[in-house]
Design a protein that fits this description.
This protein has one domain. The chain is α+β, with helices and mostly antiparallel strands and about 220 residues long. A 6-stranded antiparallel sheet has the order 2-3-1-4-6-5. It starts with a helix and ends with a helix. The chain is globular, with a radius of gyration of 17 Å. The protein has 10 helices and 6 strands.
């Protein structure tokens, strides 16, 4: 079965079990320009990573390098550059009034999920049009969809789920970097940036599923 055939199957199962207003999104980091598959065009605007996820969920396939990434924190989280120093050391979030003091801000930012290995670019595509093996698949859904995905995971594991999020760096850190690094699944409630820029609705959340876990999730969805 080709990658495209697998991804179409995954998408069909997800859409049959979970209420969605947009497509699940397949994302893949590429190490060098030579690794870019043929026929995928460079995005023609400079926007945030979370906006790119939204764009792909609405039917667009493209790739981005660091030059098209508007949010440097998001680009740092997904591994297209080093994390900006003022984000990494907590100064930026403290200045925004998110923490009681700088020490608390640093405590949190030191725990953010960040892809440390720097890559040349990222491919984004609707899952059912992705002719590649995704590193991470993201699903934007209402909490009831998140519940069904959780049920699909515990169906075989029997273990409770421990999501990791903090209301910042949601679609980049929580829903891409975390599952990418852990080979797991992560649930996130969004962040101010993704809700403002990427139109993640008040009643929506995001789930990131690593390539190591997608078969297990799909099998669980089919079984429950």
């Amino acid at each position: 079965m080709t990658n495209l055939e697998k991804n179409k199957k995954y998408c069909e199962v997800i859409e049959s079990k979970i209420k969605l207003d947009a497509k699940p999104v397949a994302m893949k980091l590429i190490k060098t320009e030579d690794d870019l598959p043929e026929g995928i065009d460079l995005i023609d605007e400079k926007i945030r990573h979370c906006e790119m996820v939204r764009k792909a969920s609405l039917g667009n396939t493209f790739y981005s390098t660091i030059d098209q990434q508007l949010c440097l924190g998001g680009a740092g989280a997904i591994g297209l550059r080093d994390m900006p120093e003022k984000l990494a050391n907590g100064e930026k979030y403290f200045s925004l009034g998110r923490f009681q003091d700088l020490e608390t801000a640093k405590k949190l930012t030191s725990k953010l999920s960040i892809v440390k290995d720097i890559h040349w670019g990222m491919i984004y595509a609707p899952l059912d049009e992705a002719d590649f093996e995704a590193d991470v698949i993201q699903i934007i859904t209402e909490p009831v969809g998140g519940m069904k995905l959780a049920q699909s995971i515990v169906y075989k594991t029997g273990e409770k789920i421990n999501p990791s999020f903090a209301g910042i760096q949601s679609l980049c850190g929580d829903a891409f970097a975390d599952p990418y690094i852990t080979n797991g699944v992560n649930f996130t409630l969004g962040c101010d940036g993704s809700r403002k820029a990427a139109d993640i609705k008040d009643n929506e959340m995001t789930v990131g599923i690593s390539k190591a876990k997608i078969e297990e999730v799909i099998s669980g969805l089919e079984s429950i």
